[in-house]
Amino acid sequence: MTLLLRDCEIILPPPSAFLQRSTGFQSSLSMIFDILFHRRKNIMEVRDIAMKAYYEWKHVFKLDPAKEISEADLEKVCESGTDAVIVGGTDGVTEDNTLDLLMRVRRFSVSCVLEVSNLHSIVPGFDYYLIPSILNSRQAVWINGLHHRALKEFGHLIDEEEILAEGYCVLNPEAKVAQVTDAATGLDSEDIIAYARMTDRLFHMPIFYLEYSGAYGDPNIVSQVNDVLEKSQLFYGGGIESAAQAKEMSAFADTIVVGNVIYTDLKTALKTVDAAKEAAYTKGTE
């Protein structure tokens, strides 16, 4: 008799054993719970060892809870060697699909991070909670309103060391995030650098995020921003669809975020991991 549990298999004694001795059933149940408890404990211990702090990330994958991904593809993403998996999106993000994706990713040792896009998606169990401040939004709610509401309702449930503010600069006018947040995307390099300095020196946010969301950005801009940041970690996200692009942006950004290509060309997406880490290693030895 075999009991199948999502990702493990447990062999039970035959039914006749349960009929012969009532204690057989009890001992079998005890065995099951013991295996599951130690299995979960081992996974958590591996995660604690493997988990990297956000400032050590070179490459992260971003998964949208509103998009479908098979178990096989999810395993490839989580076992790819990426430094973390960010869960987040703009449309259709709910408590249910966020929790579902969290539980699926938690089967693996990779760090799992929630980027908060609305208050309905905040659930416990993530390693970090990224709260974006859209610095170039024309609406104050996207600059500090979400932060205030999130901490008012959930601040007592989350360890302060798990909360990371992101200074976002959204630069693709066609992106959904730009439209939803009413971002002023027509910025020149001096404007962008000023936002980077605000994040780094005025607001002291741990992360400055250059967000092109669906479009490949200007490496020259990323390079200039990298030159002025002193403490904030530089995240770059947008339009990375090849290992070559991952390598190019990783030469300037501290962390690259790869998202859409996961759903269109997973094989290529997986190649961005080694490309990013190779570029980061080369940069670190120069």
TrEMBL record:
The keyword Nuclease is annotated on this UniProt entry: no
InterPro entries listed in its UniProt record: GGGP/HepGP_synthase_I, GGGP/HepGP_synthase_sf, GGGP_HepGP_synthase
Cofactors that this protein relies on: Mg(2+)
Listed SUPFAM superfamilies: FMN-linked oxidoreductases
First-tier enzyme category under EC: transferase
Keyword Oxidoreductase: no
Binding residue positions for sn-glycerol 1-phosphate: 62, 209-214, 239, 259-260
One GO process term, biological-process aspect: glycerophospholipid biosynthetic process
Pathway: Membrane lipid metabolism; glycerophospholipid metabolism
Protein known as: Heptaprenylglyceryl phosphate synthase
